[in-house]
Amino acid sequence: MRNDEHVNGIDPSLYPFLSQFPNSFQVFNWKGEFIEVTDKFCRYLEFDRAEILGKKITDFLKEDDFEQLNEAFDDLRKRKSIANFETKLVTKAGEDIWFMWIAIPLADSKTIIAMERDITIQRDISYEFILQQQKYKSIFDNIPMGLAITDEKGRIIETNRTARRYFDIKEGEALNRTLNLRKYTMIQPNGSKVYPRKSSLMRALRNKEVLDDLELGLIKKDETIWFEILATPIPLDGFGLAVAFIDISKRKQAEEKIAYMAFFDQLTNLPNRNALIDKLFPIFEEARRHGNLVGVLVIDLDNFKVINDSKGHEFGDKILKLVAFRIAESVRNYDLISRQGGDEFTIILPDLTDEKEAAVVAESILDAMTIPFLLSDEKIYVNVSIGLAIYPNDGKDADTLLKNADSALNLAKQKGKNRYTYFTAELQKLVTERLELESKMRLALDEGHFSLVFQPKIDLKTYKPTGVEALLRWNFPNRGMIPPEIFIPIAEETGMILAIGEWVLKRAIQTLKSWNLAGIENITMAVNISTKQFRHEKLTTVISENLRESNINPSLLEIEITESALMENTDEAVKTLKEIRNLGITIAIDDFGTGYSSLGYLRKFPISCLKIDRSFVSEITTDKDSETIIHAVSNLAHNLGLSVVAEGAETLDQVDLLVAGGIDSIQGFYFSKPLNAEDCLKFLKEKLSI
Q1: What averages of pLDDT result for each successive group of 10 residues across the chain (690 residues)?
Q2: Is the pTM of this model over 0.85?
Q3: Which residues, in sequence order, are CB contacts of 57 under 8 Å at separation 6+?
Q4: Cα separation of 410 and 59, whole Å?
Q5: What are phi and psi of 149, to 5 degrees?
Q6: How far apart are CA 101 and CA 84, in angstroms?
Q7: Would you say the CATH fold of 449-688 matches that of 143-252?
Q8: Which InterPro entries match (predicted)?
Q9: How many other C-beta atoms are found inside a 10 Å radius of the C-beta of residue 247?
Q10: Cβ distance 673 to 658 under 8 Å?
Q11: For the chain, how many helices (H) and strands (E)?
Q12: What does residue 662 show for φ and ψ, rounded to 5 degrees?
């Protein structure tokens, strides 16, 4: 193998390994096309190197042999495990020559490396056998994954150097163990212990089955090593399985980081809103069975913005940590504390017998806040306002109670702050207002009160726009613009989101068509699809009909879906995503990092892009964890073949850090605020010099 030549499609990390064994491997891409050949192989076929490269191996077969070889390559791609097979190739002179192959699929780079052996004539069979054995042993020992060979009873008869390192096996050590007997405990991804006799490996051995997509953790003294395990039966007497152990520990650590990120606040290490919602239902059920009350307290720091603006975000973060600690000291040890983001905290008080008990806790917190915080030799006074709602009096579900407690919090602030307020009939006005919004929303579509604005996405390599995101706005008569965070949840709850979403999709595609006619040809239009829309059976029909009517290139339309919507029913989600993808549309996961992230599922979703939530971007200049997380997500996405967009960039410092973090595109006020269709067209023409 030549070191001075770039081999398209080969993982660069394999170059050192391949260079140790020149003239040993033929390298194929995932389609079975030669992307590297040895001189010896060229001599076998009597073709020049240039005549072989780029051609499929089937180009050197007779038609009758196509099926068998295609099956072998399909098997390699599907099972992703080491395999051996035989082929009969045709030389330039038209003569048949038989080869036996040992092939290793490298799924990450979609490459197959294979070693052939001419078995047409067994010349110098003893020398050839010894040479091949030595070569096989060297390759077996140096391949960058753990390998083990067993006999038919599961006894381990051979391991390579990497496997010996994983399992702390000394060179030349007699194993005297089977797959049933292990030095270390192995666990499944859910944490349960793997019992050897019931393990998938033993079942594959007994049933002579191929095993793939098995993930197990090896618990050692100082660490847990996570493996993706592949196994295939060896069709020779006296042999059992060939087992490959691929170290995926870094990927698992990244998954755990993202999972933690989805359920815990990075600053205070308190549970976040997702974790809180998960725990509320069983708390309410317990209260219902025993006839108890549950208190919901929403806490907000008074004038915290002044501290942030005057002292800086780093100082403000330290205050938030101290506030979280003081709140924890003021409640019972079984009360649940959560940070909802910003300067807002939520406390759940289970097992109350009287509403007044919630007031006792609120007063305890207010009293604790009268003591100043000493930070950087300076006394800092922090006051808080608290809103209280009681289950089941003020609501019987999490959303209602949190909403009502938040309404009570707003009232406490209106009354002068630094106090607590119960949700009362006085706050029913807010509910009335919500009903008014719901009622008017049903007329807004017909009366033309909805509109779209478009925010450009900027490529960080060219600093030119590559797409826009369509954003919905509602101009309420006599009141002005209603924030989307207010009316979108109402639309979701009432089902109006289906009609509104269909209108948004149609109007966005019509706008894109008009831009195409105005000379804007390669700009993508991203449209958000709500959870309810995504689950609706007519989604793909609605999309395809709009594409057909507009006659635009489907690849210019991008559908954005939140990860929480995808994780509610992953099987159905995969099915729907494939239907959308088959229309030629690209798919992005929106607000990535705020839901139930799993890289295992990301590999199954036919997506093209991850959009990192703006909450991480806003803190990237002040929170090292946010910067680290963005960098990690970017690397992981690129390894999965996905592009990465960061939302909410507002400053040059944020942009510089996002560039350094490997982000592909940015969407934010730094480059452009959301624009109406006419102004956005002008912006695109100006930036694209059209």
Answers
A1: 46 66 80 89 92 92 87 86 87 89 84 86 59 79 86 83 83 62 74 70 82 83 86 81 88 80 82 86 90 94 81 88 91 89 91 90 92 87 92 90 88 86 74 76 86 95 95 88 86 88 95 94 94 90 94 95 79 90 94 64 85 88 86 88 92 92 93 95 91
A2: no
A3: 28, 32, 33, 34, 69, 73, 87, 89
A4: 74
A5: -115, 135
A6: 5
A7: no
A8: Biofilm_reg_signaling, EAL_dom, EAL_sf, GGDEF_dom, Nucleotide_cyclase, PAS, PAS-like_dom_sf, PAS_4
A9: 18
A10: no
A11: 25, 27
A12: 90, 15
3-state secondary structure of 687: helix
pLDDT of residue 15: 66
pLDDT of 186 reads 80
Contacts of 356 (CB under 8 A, 6+ apart): none
Task: For residue 110, count CB atoms less than 10 angstroms from its CB and return exposed for 0-12, middle for 13-18, buried for 19 or more.
Answer: middle
Distance separating alpha carbons of residues 312 and 474, to the nearest angstrom = 35
Which residue is it, tokens 């001075």? 4
Residue with tokens 């490996």: 201
CATH topology (fold) of 263-422: Alpha-Beta Plaits (3.30.70)
Distances (CA, A) of 624 to 232, 266, 617, 630, 650: 44, 10, 11, 10, 18
Q: In Å, how far are 295, 322, 357 from 369, measured between CA atoms? A: 20, 11, 19
- CATH superfamily label, 14-124: PAS domain (3.30.450.20)
Domain boundaries, the chain: 14-124, 143-252, 263-422, 449-688
Distance, in Å, from the CA atom of 134 to the CA atom of 516, rounded to the nearest integer, reads: 63
Give the span between the Cα atoms of 592 and 225, in whole angstroms. 27
User: b vs e for 521-532, b when ≥16 Cβ sit within 10 Å of the residue's Cβ?
Assistant: eebbbbbbbbeb
Structure tokens at 39: 């001189």
Name the token pair of 143.
Answer: 């391949």
Tokens encoding 141: 């020992």
143-252 — its CATH code? Answer: 3.30.450.20
- The alpha carbon dihedral of 350, 355, 358, 364 has a sign of negative
217 contacts 189 by C-beta, under 8 angstroms: yes
Residue 176: per-residue pLDDT: 59
Rounded CA-CA distance 375/381 in Å is 11
Type of residue numbered 198: K
C-alpha distances (whole Å) from 183 to each of 186, 189, 423, 582 are 10, 19, 60, 48
The Cα 48–Cα 46 span in angstroms is: 7
**Under 8 Å CB-to-CB from 364, ≥6 apart: which residues?**
330, 331
For 78, other C-beta atoms within 10 Å of its C-beta total: 11
* Residue 147 token pair: 């390998």
Closest CA to 346 of 335, 355, 333: 335
Token digits of residue 447: 């009366």
- Which residues have a Cβ under 8 Å from the Cβ of 168 and sit 6 or more positions away? 183, 220
- The correct CATH number of 449-688 out of 3.20.20.450, 3.40.50.150, 3.40.50.170, 3.40.50.360 is 3.20.20.450
Rounded to the nearest 5°, which phi and psi values hold at 198?
-105, 10
Q: How far apart are CA 631 and CA 467, in angstroms?
A: 23
DSSP secondary structure of 503-569? HHHHHHHHHHHHHHHTT--S-EEEEE--HHHHH-TTHHHHHHHHHHHHT--GGGEEEEEEHHHHHSS
Tokens of 11: 């993982």
Contacts of 29 (CB under 8 A, 6+ apart): 8, 9, 35, 110, 111, 112
